[in-house]
Design brief:
Pfam families: GerE, Response_reg. This is Two-component transcriptional response regulator. InterPro entries: CheY-like_superfamily, Sig_transdc_resp-reg_C-effctor, Sig_transdc_resp-reg_receiver, Tscrpt_reg_LuxR_C, WH-like_DNA-bd_sf. The protein is α/β, with parallel strands linked by helices. The chain folds into 2 domains: about 10-145, Rossmann fold (3-Layer(aba) Sandwich), CATH 3.40.50.2300; about 155-210, Winged helix-like DNA-binding domain superfamily/Winged helix DNA-binding domain (Arc Repressor Mutant, subunit A, Orthogonal Bundle), CATH 1.10.10. About 50% of the residues lie in helices and about 10% in strands. It is built from 9 helices and 5 strands; from the N terminus they run E-H-E-H-E-H-E-H-E-H-H-H-H-H. The protein has helices at about 25-35, 45-50, 75-80, 100-105, 120-150, 155-165, 170-180, 180-195, 200-210, and strands at about 15-20, 40-45, 60-65, 90-95, 110-115. A 5-stranded parallel beta sheet has the order 2-1-3-4-5, sandwiched between helices. It is elongated. The two termini are about 25 Å apart.
Length: about 220
């Protein structure tokens, strides 16, 4: 099942609990409960409907209602959990089987709650923790996207020099490898640092490591 991303709305840019539940009664019940806790609650009748209106920048968490047996919805959970800009997911299910719960944990869900026994407090705590987790993930995601954008501004020669620097080559080795002067290498390294926003050499190394740059691995690979 392929999902597409289209529309945006004002709620996409403020923390909200996005409730996905195909059952009208339980969906409305969850919305009422979540709203009573002081959270913005938005409902969707299906994962496809949720992603139809999704946009990068959506904040908060996703509350995904899985039917019993829960393993029937694991494919949907896997797709939602592995989106590049995925929200933390709270699973609410009637299923008490262990394997689906284990798989959900492996996929990194923020919480796995059984509908018949979770308390309002546990749901509130799960949403609160998911919001905090989303803020951290969002900051990291946006920083990486900004760094990738900066990296894309490097010329092929500058990228090669950066990879040689990460390998531990000094200016003389790089100059010999590229058949240029050491001054040329120094100037290009200075431009690389400026484009990547690195004020010091250790910062340049840290940014390179954060991007996953090495001699045989490029950012995003």
């Amino acid at each position: 099942m392929a999902f597409s991303i289209h529309r945006t709305s004002l709620v996409d840019f403020q923390p909200a609990a996005h409730i996905v539940d195909s059952n009208d009664d339980s969906r409305h019940s969850l919305q009422k409960l979540v709203a009573s806790m002081g959270f913005v609650a938005v409902t969707f009748a299906s994962p496809a409907e949720f992603l139809e209106g999704a946009a990068q920048g959506r904040r908060g968490c996703l509350i995904l209602s899985l039917p019993a047996p829960a393993y029937t919805g694991l494919g949907v959970l896997e797709q939602l959990a592995t989106l590049p800009d995925a929200l933390p997911i709270i699973v609410v299910t009637d299923c008490n089987s262990v394997p689906p719960a284990v798989r959900a944990v492996q996929l990194g869900v923020a919480a796995y709650l059984q509908r018949h026994c979770f308390s309002e407090t546990s749901l509130w705590e799960a949403i609160h923790a998911a919001f905090a987790r989303d803020a951290v993930q969002r900051a990291a995601y946006e920083r990486r996207q900004a760094l990738l954008a900066r990296y894309s501004e490097l010329s092929l020669r500058e990228r090669h020099i950066l990879e040689l620097i990460i390998q531990g080559c000094d200016h003389k080795q790089i100059a010999d490898d590229l058949n240029v002067s050491r001054r040329t290498v120094e100037n290009r390294r200075s431009k690389i640092m400026s484009k990547l926003g690195a004020d010091t050499f250790p910062q340049l190394i840290a940014i390179s490591i954060e991007l996953g740059i090495s001699a045989d691995r490029k950012p995003g690979s």
